[in-house]
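User: Here's a chain of 201 residues. Predict its fold as tokens.
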Amino acid sequence: MIGRSPRRRAKASGTAVGAVNALVFDGRGRLLLQRRPRGKENGGLWDKSVGGHVSAGEDWDTTLLREAGEELFDDAHSPRVRLARSEAEFAALLVKADLAREVVFRRLGLQLNLRDVRHGPHGGVRNVLYHLAIYAGRTEVPPRGFRPQKSEIDALRYFSVARVDRMLLEGALAPNMAFLWLAYGYGVVGFGPRKERRTGR
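Assistant: Prediction complete.
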């Protein structure tokens, strides 16, 4: 990780905050999105499949596993969340995993100093600077098979590529989804080979 500081203090000071985002697709190329509850940042909008902040002592991968377990299955240590450490391991896990019950992830890249703009929970605009690890996930779990974390998620639903494009134009997506979808979404719909990339300023 890149230094340690309480999240609230880091955000207030403009210091970059560590975070993870994941885009999860099913075999039909549909993207799993979560709708944020009213009263939260980006409330009422559809957002990435999984997202959260790095806690003290965690690395990116540990955070991804914890956040995916919490948000998708209401269990930070859920055995239904699996992470591949390489492209070869990801391909092997897709064959071995029970995708009707499990979600398999791989890391796509690390974006340093990414500025995010979001709707505040009570109106207004918030800006946050992130060091962001980005992941792709693959599953066949139906929407009713998830147990979303109620405090963070109103609903989980799959959307076609064309529908996500339309939602972006209509303003139905959280603002950060524009970057995630345009920079990473299309590249992982087919789950073809893709090297991890690292970018920054």
